[in-house]
Structures are given as structure tokens and as C-alpha cells.
Amino acid sequence: ALVSTKEILQDAYQNHYAVGAFGAHNLEIIKAVIAGAEKMDAPVILQTTPGTIKYVGIHYMKAMVEAAAETAKVPIAIHLDHGDSFDIVMKCIRAGYTSVMIDGSHLPFNENLQLVKKVVEAAHAANVPVEAELGTIGGVEDDLEVEESSAFYTDPELAEQFVLETQIDSFAPAFGTAHGMYKQEPKLQFDLLNSIHSRIDCPLVMHGASGVPAESVQHALNYGIAKVNFSTELKDVFAEALRLYFRENPSQNDPRKYFVPASNAVKEIVVEKISMLQSPLKV
Ligand code: 13P
Ligand code: ZN
Ligand code: NA
Q1: Which pTM value belongs to this model?
Q2: Ligand 1, pocket-test mutation among 210, 237, 269, most atoms within 8 A of CB
Q3: ipTM of predicted complex
Q4: C-beta of residue 122 within 8 angstroms of C-beta of residue 86
Q5: How far is the CA of 139 from the centre of ligand 3 (A)?
Q6: Ligand 3 (single-atom ion) residues, CB below 5 Å
Q7: What phi-psi label fits residue 41: left (phi over 0), alpha (psi between -120 and 50 degrees) or beta?
Q8: What CA–CA distance (Å, rounded) separates 150 from 171?
Q9: So what EC number does this one have (predicted)?
């Protein structure tokens, strides 16, 4: 069944686990994520960036959202990841998305605030919850590239003001994660996360979770993290399984065959991530 992120994230937030949010780029990955969630009997968030929507086409996305709603045996939310304009948010809501992120984190504080307010007003009128970000998460996500050096952490006082004034439903702080894999193990700022968590009463979102060690992800669940975003690791296992398949079967031309191991690899990693997020370490 299709649900909004509001209900599944509130439950996770109150019970100190997190819902996995997986970047999906095509039909195979969408189906593999759902299969993984069904194996775990867990709610799941499928998310697409504006770049993916452009690639797939919003009408196909709408049809896949409807198909997922009709057939999935677990609660599924379809979320716009790093929405970069009011327009794309409206497009997604019209296509049946049940959750959106508006990312104005590159804007000056007041402009970010105004953009998010405007999106929240429109989205809430359609009963769609909104995620927003303050501070800058480093790394590369689609067309969005942030130098590690220009990434900066979220200020807890500004975060409090931001969440109060915008009335967003979930908040993505910058506390040391980055999009993509890491050259060195990331240093997560748990004290900062804790002080943000203590000022804000809404579920927090960890971006850039690919490459973050399981203990660090699980530790963050003690500080209000209720949604954890994975994209790069799914892309990596999908592509690696395809490369391996074609090395072993260089003349295979049937997509119904060569996508199978790649889809299974995605399903497996989704199962692994969900079980990690459901069994937080109490430390
Ligand atoms: P990773 O690619 O590091 O998993 O980050 C995903 C993400 O934050 C999507 O918004
Ligand atoms: Zn992200
Ligand atoms: Na990452």
C-alpha cells in the first residue's frame, strides 16, 4: 500500500529505528527495492531525484507509483529526493508522490526558508509531507556537486528556527556525511547531531549513508535519525553484477536474463540495510 512518509517516519522516530530510503533509477531497481522490503516485511521509501525523473519521465513514474501501490505487500512511500524547485515538487505531487524534499540548502538562510515555506504550504494542502535541509552535505548527487571543503555543518540554533518557521515534517542536517563513497572513513559529528535533536521535535534524515559503517549509522538512530538515504551502494552493486554477468556471458543479449543477478544484488543490499536500521545498537 502507498503511504506518506509522515506515518512511517513518526513510528520510526518514536521507536528509535529508521526507515530505509533507497534511490531508484529504473524499473528493475524499483522492483528490487520493494522485493527487499517485502522480504523484511518492513516499510520502505523509494526515492527519485529530479535527474531520475527526467530520465524515466514523469508519466512513467506515475504509472510505476500506481503499480507499486497496487501490488506491494508492505507500506511504500514515494519520495522526491533533492527537489530543486517549486515546480518539480508540484509535478511530483500531481503524479502521486506521497512525500517530497525541497533542497534549498545552497541558498542563503532566508531564501531557503522562504522557498521551503512556500513548498510546505502547497504540499500540506495536498496532504504531502516535506523534508528540507540546512547546511551542506558534501559529495556528488546527480548534477549537484559540493566540494568537501565547502560543505558546512548545520547550526543547531538556526535549525530550530528553520523547522519552527517552515513547519517541515522531517529535517536533514549536515553533520559529516557526504553523498557517494568516502575516501576516508567519515567523521560524524554526534555531539552536533545530539544538540540538533534536542532542539527539534521531528524525525531527522541521514543523507549520504552509502559507505558509512553500520555502527555509525546505528549510533545515529539514538539521536532522532529516522530516515536513512542510500543511493551509491545500490548503483554500485547493480553495475558490478552486470559487469560480472557480461564477463561470464559475453554474448547474452536478453534483458530478461542479464538484469536478474543485478536486481538480486540490489534486493540483497536492501535487506541488509533494512535489518541494520531495524536493530539499532543501544550505545
Ligand atoms: P549516498 O549516495 O551516499 O548513499 O547518498 C544518498 C542520498 O543522500 C540521497 O539523497
Ligand atoms: Zn541526499
Ligand atoms: Na555516502
Answers
A1: 0.96
A2: 210
A3: 0.99
A4: yes
A5: 8
A6: 208, 210-211
A7: left
A8: 20
A9: 4.1.2.13, 4.1.2.40
pLDDT digits (tens, 9 = 90+) for 209-227: 999 999 999 999 999 999 9
For atom 5 of ligand 1, which residue has the closest CA? Answer: 208
Burial of 252 (0-12, 13-18, 19+ CB in 10 A): exposed
How does pLDDT run across 242-282, given as a tens digit for each residue? 999 999 999 999 999 999 999 999 999 999 999 999 976 54
Q: Which residues pair with 146 in a beta bridge?
A: 139
Strands of the chain (E only): list them.
19-23, 44-48, 76-83, 99-102, 130-134, 138-141, 144-146, 170-173, 178-179, 204-206, 225-230
- Residue of 229, 233, 238 with the most ligand 1 atoms within 8 Å of its CB, for mutation: 229
Give whichever of 62-66, 102-106, 138-142 has the largest mean pLDDT: 102-106
Cell of 77: 512511500
Which amino acid would we find at residue 175? F
Structural domains present in the chain? 5-278 (3.20.20.70)
